[in-house]
Specification:
Aminopeptidase; about 170 residues; alpha+beta; GNAT_dom; about 35% helix; L-amino acid N-acyltransferase YncA; Acyl_CoA_acyltransferase
């Protein structure tokens, strides 16, 4: 499968929202309350994505296939966390393209941005029970800390992982 990575455009909002909602619904059942997953709506997320794109506060790259359908995305930017100056805010893929190199391609593009901007480290927050934790562990975090938050009255645990930009860049180059 050919994967094409490019910057998000305003007209991508609906497709990105679809990937966002679909990814949550296929990845987090049994982890995140069903009531929350059922409340996720593509149209509402599309409106949020339009606002995020217009605000330009973060950089989002989309992955598309040869039919120009968006199959995944990564959002990156400055971190509000003291552990690192940069952050991967979101990395979501459609279920049928997971474990096929799309996430790696998106992460490579993010690392190039971080490198060009002079960032030395970055963080990723990922649910402890995320089935894709092996992907993040393979990138060799330098530090883990545990955080919790609540969704629909359920406490959710997440890892806050700190990575070296240069180390991840080198790892993804192989």
């Amino acid at each position: 499968m050919n994967v094409h990575i490019r910057e998000i455009k305003l007209e991508d909002a609906k497709q990105v929202a679809y990937v966002h909602v679909s990814s949550w619904k296929t990845t987090y059942p049994g982890i995140v309350p069903t009531s929350f997953l059922n409340s996720l709506q593509v149209d509402e997320r599309a409106t949020l994505w339009e606002s995020r794109i217009n605000a330009g506060m973060e950089m989002t790259y989309v992955a598309s296939n040869d039919q120009n359908e968006i199959i995944g995305f990564i959002s990156i930017g400055r971190s509000k966390n003291v552990q690192a100056r940069a952050q991967v805010y979101a990395l979501y893929l459609l279920e049928d393209v997971q474990r096929k190199g799309v996430g790696k391609a998106l992460m490579k593009r993010a690392m190039e941005d971080f490198y060009e901007q002079g960032y030395q480290s970055f963080i990723i927050e990922a649910l402890v029970e995320n089935p894709s934790m092996a992907f993040y562990r393979a990138l060799r975090p330098m530090h883990y800390s545990l955080s919790t938050f609540v969704i629909h009255k359920r406490e959710i645990k997440e890892w806050v992982m700190t990575f070296s930009v240069e180390q991840v860049r080198q790892q993804l180059a192989t």
